[in-house]
């Protein structure tokens, strides 16, 4: 009798859970399709976008607080997949990077390498498809800044489905689903659901077609392999992630520490680390056969001159001017050196250290695109002891879409630039993290604070 009652109660919970998943997916699709309708009518503004994103965030928060993420099933996975498929055939919003992706794929197909070739050199192109793509590329006077793994991806997509944006998005399902199962294996079903239903991930990858998910998967997978003592393959995969975008450079000390803690052998170090270099070289090799150029020239120009949604960097710039370009990454580097000392960081989990390092890197970076923040996302999914200010940063990063152009303030666009933001917005968000970090510290280390308060004063 008791068994039947428990079975019935379990069935009711599952039915209630399925209903919640269906309603959540319905709200997600309604908001995404609302954006699509507004975007097609050229009436989507930054304010309307943020309003819709707040709706997505509320649903996501409800799924978390109601513990729905703790009982996912095949339905939740299928609905998450359905949302992705709908967005694959939708138009990106506030983004035109996809035009460069398609263009690079064609250039690699025609020339063997996209590096060192500016789109503007093709102005006057007679082919209507290429002319349309050219008209949508931002900074056509710049060669591509994307790493070789991404360029190989663009090339392969072009071979299979030339000039098809939906194809560019479609194959991103592969690293996305692989990462979902990898997170479930490492952190459990709740974490994998948190990942799969994250509105920022879904929107940036499958609506706006940013291929960073390839590098994010490779970087996270390299740590998974290192934890399983498969260091050579882990180093190699880490090298491939660097050949997507270089964000993982700052995590090398952490993966090397995993290696050194298990294998304290100086003779093997040189051989094993060579595999990381091998991953980078193999990615660049096909392009070096056709051109001496790489992404480094354009990327150094990008880092040295471009600014977008600078938060902590604004503080550095006010203090040191353009000289701050040379040392904005210093806080992240110092955090790594601090974390490598067990005496000072023994209370912190590895994921917390990675979360803090990424936080400092992006906070002080002169360029903070919303999808860049996804690189730290998989490391924030552990159930306990997570550096949650990075979660806040991930969501507040969507406010980067409130630039003057998206707000419709064309007078300020003419005065300050297309990508500029209102100063009050940058100051507000930049300063907001000060109390957030203080709260995190007080919650994370209450014993240290109480001990410091209990110490007798030298004056009394």
Automatic annotation (TrEMBL):
Key words of the record: Membrane, Transmembrane, Transmembrane helix
- So where does this one cross the membrane? 18-35, 47-65, 77-94, 165-184, 205-224, 236-259, 271-290, 323-341, 353-374, 386-404, 424-443
Protein name stated in the entry = DUF2029 domain-containing protein
The answer on whether this UniProt entry bears the keyword Transmembrane helix reads: yes
Q: Does the keyword Membrane apply?
A: yes
Which superkingdom is the protein from?
Bacteria
Q: Which organism is it from?
A: Leptospira haakeii
